[in-house]
Every structure is written in C-alpha cells, then in structure tokens.
C-alpha cells in the first residue's frame, strides 16, 4: 500500500467519522506533512470545522517543480537507508531553516527520541510515498 497524503487523510477522516457524535465538528492542527493531511481532510469532510496549517504546502502545480521535488525526496530516502537514521536526522536538523529548533533546551532529548526508530526502510517509504511531489495539487 502506498502511504500517500491522500491515503492518510482518508484513514483519519474515517476515524473522525467513527468517533465523533452526530453534528460534532473538529478543528485540525497540522505542521508540515500533518498540515498537508489536514488540508486534504478539510476539503473532503463536513466534519472539519477549521484548520490551523503550519508550514504546509497545498501541492505543486507545475510538473517541472514536481519532478525536481520528487528527485530530492528520492535522494533523501536513499540517504536515509544508506547512511542510517542518526546521520539523516543530524543532516536534517543542520539546515539554517531548523536552527531555532536546535537552540531549544530540549532539542537533544527530542533528537535522541527520533533516532530510536528501528524501521528505517519504512521511514524511507513514507518519505518517498508522501512527497509533496506525489500529492495532488489543491491549487486547481
């Protein structure tokens, strides 16, 4: 099964349908991939009252941008498998974009907890399958 944003969105919509009461609506909060999932959910469910989207993309409209991003995400997935999770995470958090995260007083604890995952191939699959390049653009 492909682990796409659309697939995850659909599964979470079903969960909300199952656990919510009649007429109950929810507000979703999502960051990054979670924001992309929340966008898809909001557009496809009347159970969503609102969303808080943080650093989420509605998708890439231009095919050339999609191809570039797909190549980047494939490369990241290969790097994860070939160099291991610890090196991947160190590289991920070493970018200027994430410098404020590194300054957080609990960053080392968060970093250590993220390196405890022992299914690197599964993580690489999620990274590849849920790429914004594979996501249906919500821009029309």
TrEMBL record:
Keywords (A to Z) from UniProt: Lyase
Domain named AB hydrolase-1: residues: 11-108
Coiled coil: none
Pfam families reported in the protein's UniProt record: Abhydrolase_6 (PF12697)
MF (Gene Ontology): lyase activity
The keyword Lyase is annotated on this UniProt entry: yes
Lyase as UniProt keyword: yes
Alphabetized Gene3D superfamilies for the sequence: alpha/beta hydrolase
InterPro entries cross-referenced by the UniProt entry: AB_hydrolase_1, AB_hydrolase_fold
Protein name: Protein PHYLLO
Organism from which the protein derives: Carex littledalei
UniProt lineage: Eukaryota, Viridiplantae, Streptophyta, Embryophyta, Tracheophyta
């Amino acid at each position: 099964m492909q682990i796409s944003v659309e697939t995850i969105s659909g599964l979470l919509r079903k969960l909300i349908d199952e656990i919510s009461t009649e007429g109950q609506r929810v507000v979703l909060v999502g960051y990054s991939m979670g924001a992309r999932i929340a966008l898809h959910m909001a557009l496809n469910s009347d159970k969503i009252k609102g969303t808080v989207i943080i650093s989420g993309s509605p998708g890439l409209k231009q095919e050339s941008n999609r191809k570039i991003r797909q190549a980047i995400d494939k490369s990241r997935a290969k790097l994860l498998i070939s160099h291991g999770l610890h090196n991947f995470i160190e590289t991920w958090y070493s970018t200027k974009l994430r410098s404020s995260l590194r300054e957080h007083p609990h960053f080392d604890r968060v970093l250590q907890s993220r390196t405890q995952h022992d299914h690197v191939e599964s993580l690489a699959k999620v990274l590849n399958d849920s790429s914004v390049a594979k996501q249906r653009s919500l821009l029309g």
